[in-house]
Amino acid sequence: MRPSRIFRMPLVPRSSYYDKEYRQTAALIRARQPYLIKNIITGTAIFTFAIGVYAFTINAVAQDDFEDVEIPDAPVQSAHTPNVGVERGVEAEEMRR
């Protein structure tokens, strides 16, 4: 009885660029060499753009002083309930009656 084809094939098909331990061979290094400088330049440009956007955003947010945002007044508290809000004080008065 022969094993089925699924068990004979590795999970990742072998390539001529990798050895049997899936390490890159000299052929893969030679094939990637023309793109090395271009990839470094592209990666540096993308990284610089991302850092620039981050720095611009932090700088833009830091300049806003939020003076145009209105802050509501504190709620008025009754004299006999110093630690309770206005709504609770009114409800408590109505329940006592």
Any key phrases for this structure?
mainly alpha; 52% helix; elongated; 97 residues
Q: How would you concisely characterize the structure shown here?
A:
The protein has 97 residues and is mainly alpha-helical.
Question: Could you explain the architecture of this structure?
Answer:
It is a single chain. It is built from four helices and no strands. With 97 residues, the protein is mostly helical. The longest helix is centred in the middle third of the chain and has 28 residues, at 36-63. The radius of gyration is 35 Å and the shape is elongated. The model has no long low-confidence stretch (mean pLDDT 79).
Average residue pLDDT: 79
Termini Cα gap: 94 Å
Strand percent estimate: under 5%
Elements, N to C (H/E): HHHH
| Structure annotation, total helices | 4
Q: Which regions contain 5 or more consecutive residues with pLDDT less than 50?
A: none
Largest sheet: none
Q: Rounded to an integer, what's the Rg over CA atoms? A: 35 Å
> How much helix is in the residues?
40-55%
Give the number of DSSP strands. 0
Overall morphology = elongated
The assigned structural class equals mainly alpha
Give the SSE map.
Elements: H1 5-8, H2 26-32, H3 36-63, H4 86-96
